[in-house]
Amino acid sequence: MSAARQTPSGGGPAAAPAPVVPAAPVAPVRTASIQIKMVVAFLLVSLLPMMFAADLATRVVSAAFEKNVETWLRETSLYFVSNILDQQQEAVSIARYLSGQKDLVDTMVEGGQPPPAALRTLLSAMDYDLIAIYDGNKHFLYASTPVSRINRLPLVSDHSLFRIELPDRTLIMAAGIQRFAVAGKPYYFVLGTWLDENFLSNLQTITSLELRLYYRDGSGFREFYSSRSGAAPHQPLPGQVGKALLEGVPNLYDPDADHGRYRGMYSPLHDATGQVVGAIFCGLRSRETLSGWITPRNLFLSIFLTGTLLAVMAGSLVSRRLSR
User: Fold this and answer.
1) Strands 158-165 and 220-226, how do they pair?
2) pLDDT tier at 55, thresholds 50, 70, 90
């Protein structure tokens, strides 16, 4: 007797198992292509704001840098001018002392004899280049250096800058003048220092800094000293610069001096009457310093390219996460 087929409790025949249908193949997602497109889109969206930001940053950085350079050159010029003033005041003090030495001045006035060798050596060690005495007619009775002419010699005790003409060149002299009397007649003792490479030696440690000195020549200025080796002598000051200094401009900053080779500051030199007798130029050589690289064009390219690189990196990171 065969066993009866077991049926579910519902009493119906058992259901046949459903056939397994294989899943349709899915097309592979090109994640690399999606990432590249998203990076490009991210870059295009940020390109215009980045250009505006780079331009703004360039203007701010350039203005700040130029202002700092201008301030530094102005302070350097003021330091130089203050050195001249200190030299003048010191010369007046020493001239006052020497003019009070009766034996010394009698010998120089009456016989036109030079001061003792020890005194000349001492004054030379103190960087004084001229010892002279002149009378009330501005006639020199003695001068340690042959002098062709000194402009605006005063007939009072004074300290000032003088244009002095030597047989071979013209210079600016920082001098102190002291009035004294011999036998009731007025005389004037002069102690002066040339403004030249010796006087400027304490500033030559800044190798990228160039100093030039100009004396006034009529309505213009003529160079008589330059710290640049091999410079052509007697170069004139640019006409517009000289005109501005004669009109009373205290300082003139030129970021493109000498056709862009320098960032320079021009300052006038005054005598005791307030007349402009010369000028000084302090220049920072652009090619030998960071100032030569910091231009608006270089700053814009650097900021823009840096921003572009950061945008690409950020876009790559974001697109990788979104494409997943």
Assistant:
1) unpaired
2) confident
